[in-house]
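Project channel, design review

CF: Before we commit to the Halopelagius longus constructs, I'd like one complete example in the thread so the newer folks can see what an input/output pair looks like. Taking Asparagine synthase (Glutamine-hydrolysing).
RD: sounds good, go ahead.
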Amino acid sequence: MSRLRGADERTVGDAIATGDPLPGTAGFAGEVDGRLVRDVLGRQPLFYEASEPATWSFDRRDLTDPVSLPAGVVRPVDAGADADSPENGGDEPTWTLPNPDPYEDREAGLDAVRAAVTESVESVDSAGLAVAFSGGVDSAVVAAGVPDAPCYVAGFEGSHDVTAAREAAAAMDRDLRVVELTHDDLREAVPELVSVLGRTNPMDLQIVLPLYLVARRAAEDGFDRLAVGQGADELFGGYAKVQKAPEDPRVEADTVRGAAREMVLTLPEQLERDVLALRAAGVEPVAPLLHDRVIEAALPLPGELLVDGETRKVALRETARTLVPASVAAADKKAVQYGTYAARELDRLARRAGFKRRMDDHVEKYVTSLVGDGDDER
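CF: and here is what came back for Asparagine synthase (Glutamine-hydrolysing):
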């Protein structure tokens, strides 16, 4: 097993010494000089054994009692289970996400984003690569950087994402492969994902199910890497709750820019989920919109380059106009769990199995029943 993923030891060692949170990588985690490390946004998951110092893994299933190393932390490999601070030999918060002043000039912000995004998507190695493609601006920009890579979309018949992906692929003249989901796909995948993630939360599963099933099909077709648009919504203001700040109770910030930063800080938990699911499907994720250069360009964006009236991800869409057809750059997208019907159909399966909506947490109870059935079969 490689001791370090995502960067070389010298780069990470220098980042530890200087406290540089964005040293020019796409994220990293592993062991360096007897210390466990995980980058500032947790783009590479890492786990250690709660009861056995020096035992760690990139896959939580390798451990009996896995603990996720927090993002931005350095921890001695031999730290005891109760060592949770530098004072007692435990976690040392080393990297903090920068909070720069906003660009004073609109064009300067747009130029910075355009340069960073374009370099990131165009520098992706296309060998063994497929693209997870929903037809939205995020995945379209990623796909534009690798014009020869096939695009994959998953969804139930009639779903928004399949329709949008077909329209965008036609506009971009791209090879699109549609993974038509079935109830059997969901029933089969849920126990595997619960094992991989250690989560039974329905929202996490609904989000990751289409991604996992797209990745599994791509792996079956011989691809070992999958390019994804992860990070764009968080970095560029893609959420309705960011658009509606400060009136939306789901965010604490009183500005659009502050709300966007709140979303960026949710990335470590989200990325742990997504990366683990993709690896379990047999591919390594490639997320060019989460490269340090893109993060550095996005963090100083003022509110008006995040949201402008009803338009979200303003700066990213302006960049997209130079890479994809205008119709694709302007396309709206639904959250993946709704755009693919994964949420709707998992709920339907739960109700058919007798877990009615009047029950508390009826979908999670159904998920737990599927995991139990899998245990019984084994």
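RD: helpful, thanks. Confidence is low (pLDDT under 50) at residues 374-378.
CF: The chain has 16 helices and 15 strands.
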